[in-house]
Specification:
Elements: E1 6-11, H1 19-28, E2 30-35, E3 44-46, E4 51-53, E5 64-67, H2 71-85, E6 89-93, H3 98-102, E7 113-117, H4 128-143, E8 147-148, H5 153-161, H6 185-192, E9 199-204, H7 213-225, E10 230-235, H8 241-250, E11 256-259, H9 263-270, E12 275-278, H10 287-294, E13 299-302, E14 320-323, H11 328-339, H12 342-358, H13 361-373
Parallel strand pairs: 1-2, 1-6, 2-5, 6-7, 7-8, 9-10, 9-12, 10-11, 12-13, 13-14
Antiparallel strand pairs: 3-4
C-alpha cells in the first residue's frame, strides 16, 4: 500500500473558511496543521461587530493539528514538528509568523516542496518605511518558495512585483461552502422583511467606514428615484449602525439592516437577494465574493477590491460588474442594468454558480494534490 503524501500547513489561527479545506486535504493526504494559536476557534469578542463570535462548528475537528506559539519558541517548535513529520510539501498561509518562516528553512537529509498562499495585493495602508520593509520581507520569503498559489489577478501582480516568475505560479483560490438548510427564497424574504417583487442587493459584513455600506443605500435610493423597484439588504453590525439606521429612515424604510448574523445565517440570507455589492475602499480579496458566487449571485464590486479579475471570484464581463469606488451613480447604473435585464441576470447567476463550485473545498483540495503529486 502506498504511503499517504505528507503535507504540513502553517497557519496563524483557525478560520471558518479554511477548516473545511483542511478536512478535505486530510482525506487526501497525511496532513499536519501547525497553528500559532487557536484562540479564534473559541468564543471571542470581535470589536468590529461589537459582538461575541461563537462558531457553530468545531474549527479544529477532522484533521491533525498542533499549536506552537509565536516568536523564537514558535520557530523552534515548528522546526521540531517538521523534522519529526518529514513533510513532502510545506504550505504557508502567509509569512507573518515564526512558524511560516520555519517552513522556508532547508532541512538536512530531507527536501520538501515549499508553497505559499496569501491574499496580499500591495494595497495602500502603510507609510513608506513600512512598505519598504514589507516589500523586502516578501521578496525574501518568495525567493525561498518553490511554488506560489495566486488567488486573484491583484495577488498575482503582487507576486510578480516580488520577483516570482510565472512558471512558479499555480492559480488556486480560497474555499467557500454553499449554504445549507432550507433555502426557500420567499420564506427568507418574509423573515428578513423584504418584498417579493423587488430587486434586492445585499452586502454582508461589518458596518464600518471602509466597507462603505452607505454607498449601497444611496445607490438603491437613486435607482428607486428612477422608477426601479430596488431594496438594499445590509447583514452586519458595527460602527456605522446608527448612521445606517438614520439613512434607511430618511429613505422611507425601503431598505433593511438585519444587524449581526452568525456566519451560516448570513450565507443563507444571501439566497433572499438578487445580487451582492461590495463597496469597500480597500479590500485585499473579499471572501464574501466567493460566498455570494456559491449562492449564485451577480457581483457588483468596487474597483478597490482585490478579488475582482479573471483569477478571482468576481470576474468582470462574466459574473461581475466593476464600478469606481465611491461612485454611487455608477453603482446605481450597474444595479439598474441587471435589474431590468432578466436574461443578463440569469446569465450572471449561472456563471457565479460555476465559479463558486470551483471554489468548493473538495475541488480546491483535489487541485492542490494534483499539483503536488501529479494526475
Amino acid at each position: 500500500m502506498t504511503a499517504a503524501f505528507r503535507l504540513l500547513i502553517a497557519i496563524n489561527h483557525p478560520a471558518q473558511y479554511i477548516s473545511p479545506l483542511l478536512v478535505e486535504l486530510a482525506r487526501r493526504a497525511d496532513l499536519l496543521v501547525v497553528y500559532t494559536d487557536v484562540d479564534s476557534a473559541k468564543a471571542h469578542f470581535d470589536p468590529g461587530f461589537d459582538q461575541i463570535i461563537e462558531w457553530e462548528e468545531d474549527l479544529l475537528a477532522g484533521y491533525t493539528h498542533v499549536t506552537v506559539g509565536s516568536g523564537v519558541p514558535g520557530l523552534v517548535r515548528t522546526l521540531r514538528q517538521i523534522r519529526r513529520f518529514q513533510p513532502e510539501a510545506l504550505l504557508s498561509f502567509g509569512w507573518n509568523s515564526a512558524s511560516h518562516w520555519a517552513t522556508r528553512c532547508h532541512l538536512p537529509r530531507h527536501s520538501s516542496t515549499r508553497l505559499l498562499v496569501c491574499d496580499a495585493t500591495g494595497q495602500r495602508g502603510a507609510n513608506l518605511v513600512r512598505r519598504t520593509v514589507r516589500a523586502l520581507r516578501t521578496r525574501v520569503f518568495c525567493a525561498m518558495t518553490d511554488l506560489v498559489l495566486p488567488i486573484s489577478d491583484a495577488n498575482k501582480r503582487y507576486y510578480l512585483s516580488s520577483g516570482v516568475p510565472p512558471e512558479r505560479m499555480f492559480p488556486w483560490g480560497l474555499p467557500v461552502e454553499a449554504a445549507t438548510g432550507k433555502l426557500d427564497r420567499n420564506v427568507l424574504r418574509m423573515q428578513l422583511g423584504l418584498r417579493e417583487d423587488t430587486f434586492v442587493v445585499c452586502q454582508t459584513g461589518k458596518l464600518s467606514p471602509g466597507k462603505r455600506p452607505l454607498d449601497l443605500l444611496d445607490a438603491c435610493q437613486a435607482a428607486r428615484s428612477r422608477g426601479v423597484k430596488v431594496q438594499g439588504l445590509l447583514c452586519g453590525d458595527g460602527l456605522l449602525r446608527s448612521v445606517v439606521a438614520d439613512r434607511i429612515s430618511r429613505y422611507g424604510h425601503h431598505d433593511v439592516c438585519t444587524g449581526f448574523l452568525p456566519y451560516a445565517a448570513a450565507r443563507r440570507a444571501m439566497h433572499a437577494a438578487d445580487a451582492l455589492a461590495l463597496c469597500s475602499d480597500q479590500e485585499a480579496y473579499g471572501m464574501v465574493l466567493g460566498e455570494a458566487a456559491a449562492a449564485g449571485l451577480p457581483l457588483l464590486v468596487s474597483s478597490q477590491v482585490g478579488g475582482a479579475g479573471s483569477l478571482g471570484p468576481a470576474q468582470p464581463g462574466n459574473n461581475a460588474r466593476i464600478f469606481p469606488c465611491g461612485d454611487v451613480e455608477a453603482l446605481s447604473d450597474a444595479i439598474i442594468s441587471i435589474a431590468l435585464n432578466p436574461d443578463e441576470l440569469q446569465r450572471m447567476k449561472l456563471l457565479s454558480r460555476d465559479i463558486g463550485a470551483e471554489l468548493a473545498p473538495d475541488q480546491l483540495a483535489e487541485a492542490l494534490m494534483r499539483a503536488l503529486t501529479g494526475p
